[in-house]
TrEMBL record:
Family note: Belongs to the peptidase S8 family.
GO terms, molecular function: serine-type endopeptidase activity
GO biological process: proteolysis
InterPro entries per record: Peptidase_S8/S53_dom (IPR000209), Peptidase_S8/S53_dom_sf (IPR036852), Peptidase_S8_His-AS (IPR022398), Peptidase_S8_Ser-AS (IPR023828), Peptidase_S8_subtilisin-like (IPR050131), Peptidase_S8_subtilisin-rel (IPR015500)
Domain Peptidase S8/S53 intervals: 74-464
Protein's recorded name: Peptidase S8 and S53, subtilisin, kexin, sedolisin
Signal peptide per UniProt: none
Keyword vocabulary terms for this entry: Hydrolase, Protease, Serine protease
Length: 656
């Protein structure tokens, strides 16, 4: 391949894609949806008796870990899928590995499922009794034939029509397959009493026959796990519906996944017996909760800040109420101009500071391969962000490629001003999807994030058994995953973070840290560095996009301050400094942090070691002087662009 360019061109040293990374970003206009996802054609699931390759489990140590510890398969943990919903009626999401109901709670924070309730009276007509609201012209039969009655004779009626799904991402218009798209589904709700227990129920006219006496009462989903299936005359039920009743707000909220993205993520994280085969997700023993924040009537199942915050606050509440460790997966994101400083990232920092045992996995973004493309909220230090890998066996079995190794997918967002992603995980798989979905093979960092959430579930499941009295802060667990990941050859930190996630390595390191008392000594640190592209020229990593002006005589510095996590009255630690790159030179070999004082770590760039054009990416690591444990890392990235000058006649040529 011969190309000629008359512009400032940068290549990227240390990556398997050198000129191609720049050329792809220049010549390919990739469309990215708000949901970090690319969907491809259908692949039929089939059982694999010995090797599971449709969700890659081998190279990350998951297969080995579960063979050694089958009881540490996520049981005793909850994975919360903050997404477009979950279809709890699909094979693979009905039961855990121990036979319990898989999905234990669902909530919709988008408003898409809201159904307003109105006061209803009972009227008799032609030997039949009806629930009626004359003002809304609502009327449904069966009032005299219900198995339950309102304890205070107060009934409420609401209506759902097929038009609700007219603009749905599912493209389903005719839910029951009867050839029309204007069917009505009435809901009647009331408080009832039995066996000295008072509770609310809602009858849903699932067959749209205008009579609810042949329908079952539904309680709030988390109480009895009741579900509604609208029979499709032409095939399978398109999607499963659950509901929650909010009497004070006089509404019923329906929960369903008419986008498929959330159901796919759920299967990767915690699916069990997908398609009634031996295929499982990463943590088949884990419970699931579906917290819907993606409104599928909006493009790509988009969300808004209010929906996200309400979902996170609910997850935080559940995390504090229940004994099980709670892991959030949010495979959503958007580009961020000022990484790490968005309102929502500040919200997450406050949330995790208040609840350090809330574990959050997010997708790093599909804006790559350009550098500095990590989005929101992946740039936050309060989350574990994952880039996407195409595993060798997945490429071979699902995509028909001939790969001899795992590769990082081209679109996986890279770091720059922020030291992200934290790790990379398999980001291509077949998984669970609702029946309306045209395919079950997706790829994206959206798929990598639930994989990492599943790994978090495995580790916390194991820790509950082996260390029942130990609570592991979320950011310490992220640190363990970064340090135990396996670096992928040909990639640098801003491509892969610590490397390919590995649960076996992580569990061994976690046990080592617990035995050494690292949990009680664990601290978080805030790092500030020179980043001229930022409004105040400061970010959490050094990032110089155009280093052509650098002479090598400059001195730079990182500023490091301890976050207030240690409750002891005094704090004094010495750290030994070590660089992983010969061009990145710490001027001092040691630094210290005392109480709330900041440390200034000076460094310089050795231009004699930066003779090639391209990208230079390195880190200086601070090790605790007593334990030699890595305490924090400081990342630097410098790009030396190719020069178009009179000496080369303003022309450069590359041959591939």
């Amino acid at each position: 391949m011969i190309m000629r360019h008359s512009l400032l061109l940068s290549t990227f040293k240390g990556s398997p894609i050198i000129k191609e990374r720049f050329l792809i970003t220049q010549w390919c206009k990739m469309k990215t949806k708000f949901i970090l996802l690319i969907i491809f054609i259908t692949v039929t699931l089939s059982a694999q008796e010995t090797i599971q390759s449709f969700i890659s489990l081998k190279n990350t140590g998951v297969q080995e870990f579960l063979e050694k510890h089958p009881e540490y398969d996520g049981r005793g943990t909850i994975v919360m899928i903050l997404d477009t919903g979950i279809d709890m009626g699909i094979d693979g999401l009905t039961k855990t590995s121990t036979g319990e109901d898989k999905v234990i709670d669902v909530q919709d924070f988008t408003g898409q499922g809201d159904v307003q309730l109105f006061d209803a009276t009972i009227e008799n007509e032609n030997d039949s009794s009806f629930f009626v609201n004359s003002e809304k012209d609502y009327k449904v039969a069966g009032a005299d034939k219900l198995s339950l009655k309102a304890k205070d004779d107060k009934y409420y009626i609401g209506l759902v029509t097929e038009k609700r799904w007219m603009n749905s991402g599912s493209r389903v218009r005719d839910l029951n397959g009867n050839g029309t798209t204007d069917d009505k589904f009435y809901i009647v709700a009331f408080e009832t009493e039995s066996d000295s227990e008072s509770y609310w129920v809602a009858y849903f006219d699932a067959n749209s026959d205008g009579d609810i006496s042949d329908d079952q009462p539904n309680r709030n989903y988390k109480e009895k796990h009741d579900v509604i299936k609208i029979k499709n005359e032409t095939g399978l039920t398109y999607f499963t519906i659950a509901l929650n009743i909010f009497p004070k707000e006089k509404k019923v909220v329906l929960f369903f996944d008419d986008g498929s993205h959330g159901t796919h993520c759920a299967g990767i994280a915690a699916g069990y017996s997908i398609g009634k085969t031996s295929l499982n997700g990463v943590a088949p023993g884990a419970y699931l909760m579906g917290l819907k924040l993606g409104n599928n009537t909006l493009s790509g199942g988009a969300t808004v800040t209010g929906s996200m915050k309400r979902a996170y606050l609910y997850a935080d509440k559940i995390s504090k109420e229940r004994e099980e460790p709670c892991i959030i997966n949010m495979s959503f994101g958007i580009g961020s101009e000022i990484e790490g400083r968005a309102d929502f990232e500040i919200f997450l920092a406050d949330l995790v500071r208040d609840n350090p045992y809330l574990y959050i996995a997010t997708s790093n973004g599909n804006e790559g391969p350009g550098i500095s493309t990590t989005g929101l909220p992946a740039a936050s230090t309060s989350v574990l962000s994952s880039g996407a890998v195409l595993a060798q066996e997945i490429g071979n079995d699902l995509y028909g490629t001939v790969l001899d190794r795992d590769i990082i997918l081209h679109f996986s967002s890279r770091g720059g001003e922020v030291p992200k992603p934290d790790v990379v995980s398999p980001g291509a798989a077949t998984s669970t999807v609702p029946n309306f979905a045209g395919g079950d093979r997706y790829w994206g960092t959206s798929m990598a994030s639930p994989y990492s959430a599943g790994v978090l579930s495995l580790l916390l499941s194991a820790a509950k058994v082996e260390f029942p009295d130990v609570k592991i802060p979320s950011r310490l667990l992220y640190k363990v995953l970064r340090e135990s990941a396996v670096p992928m050859e040909g990639y640098v930190k801003i491509d892969q973070g610590g490397g390919l996630i590995n649960v076996v390595n992580a569990f061994e390191l976690l046990k080592k840290y617990i035995a050494a008392g690292e949990i009680s000594k664990f601290e978080n640190y805030t790092i500030s560095a020179f980043a001229p592209n930022m409004p105040d020229e400061i970010s959490s990593s050094m990032y110089v996009r155009n280093g052509s002006y650098l002479t090598g005589d400059e001195n730079f510095s990182f500023s490091v301050i301890k976050d207030d996590n240690n409750t002891t009255n005094t704090f004094y630690r010495l750290f030994n400094l070590k660089s992983d790159s010969d061009w990145l030179i710490p001027i001092s070999k040691q630094t210290r942090i005392r109480n709330d004082h900041s440390a200034t770590i000076n460094y310089r760039l050795d231009k004699s070691k930066m003779t090639d054009f391209g990208m230079y990416n390195g880190t200086i690591t601070a090790y605790d002087s007593k334990t030699n444990t890595p305490a924090f890392e400081m990342m630097a990235t410098v790009v030396l662009p190719y020069q178009f000058t009179s000496e080369n006649n303003y022309s450069l040529t590359w041959k591939d």
